[in-house]
Every structure is written in structure tokens, then in C-alpha cells.
Design a protein that fits this description.
340 residues, alpha/beta, Nucleotidyltransferase, domain 5, five-stranded mixed beta sheet, 9 helices, 10 strands
């Protein structure tokens, strides 16, 4: 039987990434991140798409070289079709179409959120790898999403809960901005929280039904506390930075885990996976391990390389779709917003 070799391309936001997967095993995963946005305090879409244009060819080239495969070995090109920034998506989509057309191979469109979930099936070809079994729950937490997903198969996923306002990553980033930390603030909050007291400040927790999330109340409660304290002491933030970070982080993790516990119990599913950029957070990772010990959950926490945007997760999703003959027509356009 011929090998299935998939080139995955990810360009939904500010990371240009290419990866090669052969028969389900990852051979390379190359990412060029864009530093140009740091001074603006957020991703500038026009600058992102220009940087993707500069990066895409060298990144794909490097991914093929590291994998030791020639472009003529490829079975298909998988690409992120959405959701994401339209200009950024257009670069990856157009490249994938042109490249595949020239090689006379099919293209496979990939939903970025579905790929974050399927990142748990990336194999590095080593012994003792463990993958979740269906059905499992996945907490997908990033800068744009906070969702609880029931994963029944590679293609059958149901969002049973999601944020009604800000995402968890946004809560970290917005609070970090108020404290004068660089963008994205999440990793800085995580770092500073290690020296802080998580019980130092108490912030409001949302009371909303079912498995849905809300983080706008936390952000407002944080903002009001800081505003009032600064009136008494102008150095309040600097003098309490670690405690503020630890307390925000504690509250975000508490909010995330409470709904996840409820979903696991109600749905009777105790295999629980974590995905998305915020899954890099050390307190959230620790909470997963604690839940494994306390409630007997079997937890799946991704390696750091697969928490942020990466093409390995696009390639593995493309690999599964390829096996199902799920291809994409050349006239399909990227989409900026869509659910799973
Ligand atoms: O999935 P992702 O890379 O892309 C977007 O959805 O944009 O997630 C990025 C988000 C940002 O909000 C960032 O602050 C957050 O993930 N993040 C973290 C940590 N690392 C990244 N939040 C908390 N703690 C971290 N260690």
C-alpha cells in the first residue's frame, strides 16, 4: 500500500506553519512567528497577511526538508480554511491551492478548531503514546474560544458549552493589559502568578446556566478593584503584581474547571482533553492533573508545541479527512467565522 503523506499549512492568525505527516506520524512541524505585532498590543491583520506571504515558501520548504520528503511524495495538501483572519487565511489557502494544483494532488480544508481537538492524535512515532478514546470531552481554550466539546469521532464533535462573551485567553490578556504587561499577557500572568498568592484578591464568578462560560464579569470586577485601590495607593499594581496575577489565574481556572466537572459528571464521560493556546497555562495543567487524581479522570494535556497554532494539527486532521475522501473544491473560499 502506498504511504499517505500530508503537507499541512496553518496561517489563520499570526503564525505561519507547515508540517508533514506520513502514515499518521509527524515528520516535521515548522513555525515562523511574527514579532511585528508586539509593539501594537495585538495582531494587526494587514501586517499578519504580509508576513505570511514572506514566510510561507521558506516555511514549507523547511518542513519538506526536515521531513526528508520531496514535494512529489505528497498525497495531498491540507490547509486551515477558517476560522481566523481572512487576509491571513487567504495566504495559506491560495498557496495550498496553487501548490496542489501544480502537483496534481487534492486539497483538504481543515477547520482550525477541530484541528486543535485532533492535535491529541498527533503521533511522533514513539513507544507508549496514548491517545484519547471516543467519546471524550475536550476543553478548548484560546484567545478567541472557550468551549466544552463532546468528541464522538474524528468528525463528530458537539459543542455543549461555550463562552457567551470573552474567551479565557482574552480575560488573561485584557487583565494583563490593565497591569501594563506586554501582549499577549497570558504567559506573563502565568509566570508572575508563580510568586503570588492566589487567594489575595477575590473576583466575581459568573452564574450562568448549563456548561456555558462568561469572563466579562471577571474582567469588570478586576478593573473596578484596580481602579479603587489605585485611588488609595498609586503604586498598587506594582506592589501587588504577583498576587493580582495569581488571583486572576486562580479565578479563571476555577471557572473553567467547575463547568468541565459538571459536564463530565452529567454526561458520564471521564476522558478529558485540554486544547488551545491557554492550555499552556501551568495552573490549568495542574488542575487537570488534580482532577485526574481526585475524580479518576483520564486526562490528556498536549505538549506545548501543539497548544498554540501549529500545522501538525492541520496535517493530522487532513490525514483523517484524506482517508475519508473528504476533499475540497478549488473554488472554496476561506471563512473568518464559523463553528465546528
Ligand atoms: O490558541 P491561541 O494560540 O490563539 C488564539 O486563539 O489567538 O491562544 C492564544 C491565547 C492568548 O490569549 C494567550 O494569552 C493565551 O493563549 N496563553 C496563555 C498562556 N499561553 C498562552 N494564557 C495563560 N497562560 C499561559 N501560559
Amino acid at each position: 500500500m502506498n504511504s499517505i503523506v500530508i503537507l499541512g499549512i496553518e496561517s489563520s492568525c499570526d503564525d505561519t506553519s507547515a508540517a508533514v505527516i506520513k502514515d499518521g506520524v509527524l515528520l516535521s512541524n515548522i513555525t515562523a512567528s511574527q514579532s511585528v505585532h508586539a509593539k501594537y498590543g495585538g495582531v494587526v491583520p494587514e501586517l499578519a497577511s504580509r508576513a505570511h506571504q514572506q514566510n510561507i515558501i521558506p516555511v514549507v520548504n523547511e518542513a519538506l526538508t526536515v521531513a526528508g520528503v520531496s514535494k512529489t511524495d505528497l498525497s495531498a495538501v491540507a490547509f486551515t480554511r477558517g476560522p481566523g483572519l481572512l487576509g491571513s487565511l487567504l495566504v495559506g489557502t491560495s498557496f495550498a491551492k496553487g501548490f496542489a494544483q501544480a502537483l496534481e494532488i487534492p486539497i483538504v480544508d481543515v477547520n482550525h478548531l477541530q484541528a486543535h481537538v485532533l492535535a491529541h492524535f498527533i503521533s511522533e512515532g514513539t513507544d507508549n503514546e496514548q491517545f484519547p478514546e471516543f467519546p471524550f470531552l475536550c476543553l478548548l481554550v484560546s484567545g478567541g474560544n472557550s468551549q466544552i466539546i463532546v468528541v464522538r469521532s474524528y468528525s463528530d464533535m458537539e459543542i455543549v458549552g461555550q463562552t457567551i462573551d470573552d474567551a479565557a485567553g482574552e480575560a488573561f490578556d485584557k487583565c494583563a493589559k490593565v497591569m501594563g504587561l506586554p501582549y499577549p499577557g497570558g504567559p506573563h500572568v502565568d509566570r508572575l502568578a508563580k510568586q503570588g498568592n492566589p487567594q489575595a484578591f477575590v473576583f466575581s464568578k459568573p452564574q450562568i446556566p448549563e456548561y456555558n462560560y462568561s469572563f466579562s464579569g471577571l474582567k469588570t470586577s478586576f478593573l473596578y478593584l484596580v481602579r479603587d485601590k489605585i485611588k488609595e495607593n498609586p503604586n498598587f499594581i506594582a506592589e501587588n503584581l504577583n498576587d493580582l496575577c495569581a488571583s486572576i489565574q486562580y479565578t479563571v481556572v476555577e471557572i473553567l474547571m467547575a463547568k468541565l466537572r459538571k459536564a463530565a459528571k452529567d454526561l458520564n464521560i471521564y476522558q478529558v482533553a485540554l486544547a488551545g493556546g491557554v492550555s499552556a497555562n501551568s495552573a490549568l495543567r495542574e488542575a487537570f492533573q488534580q482532577h485526574a487524581n481526585k475524580y479518576g479522570w483520564k486526562v490528556f494535556v498536549p505538549p506545548f508545541a501543539y497548544t498554540t497554532d501549529n500545522a501538525a494539527m492541520i496535517a493530522i486532521t487532513g490525514y483523517f479527512k484524506y482517508q475519508n475522501n473528504e476533499f475540497c473544491a478549488l473554488n472554496e473560499a476561506p471563512y473568518s467565522r464559523v463553528s465546528m
